[in-house]
Amino acid sequence: MTAEKWHVKRFDDLSGKEVYELLRARETVFVVEQECPYHEIDHHDLESLHVYTTDAFGVVTAYARIFQEGGLVTFGRVLVRKDQRGKGLANQLIGKVLQVIEEHFPKQPIEIEAQEYVQALYARFGFKTISDVFLLDDIPHVRMEKR
């Protein structure tokens, strides 16, 4: 496992090419792979911190976005490109996301809606499940928090 070069940018600091690559990665994972034909772009993109790494060609290999909602911090659209899975990149990504949250939103509680099958990943970082399973875009999710 190699150490990745992570980028953390607000929407207005992203280049047009970076926006394209982030949205292409999200569409590939969420719309195509997970067969979730829902709008991939929303108002949170404009207010988020976008955390990502790329391959040598500038193609996104891992990504998440962080934003405040109410009195909480949340992150979502967490993805690792299919050909990069199983290499520890998800752990690196979540570690980086939590580091960015601590830098930008110190001591604020974090709440996420995690896909059910990755609960254990978040639990390794101290997240606790706080809900029963529910469907979000026809995919089983749970709410998790870290305080």
Automatic annotation (TrEMBL):
InterPro entries from the entry?
Acyl_CoA_acyltransferase, GNAT_dom
- GO MF annotation list: acyltransferase activity, transferring groups other than amino-acyl groups
Q: Which residues form the N-acetyltransferase domain?
A: 9-147
This protein is called Acetyltransferase
Q: Does the keyword Transferase apply?
A: yes
Q: What Pfam families is this protein classified in?
A: Acetyltransf_10
Highest rank taxon of the organism? Bacteria
Query: From which organism does this entry originate?
Result: Sporolactobacillus inulinus CASD
Protein keywords: Transferase
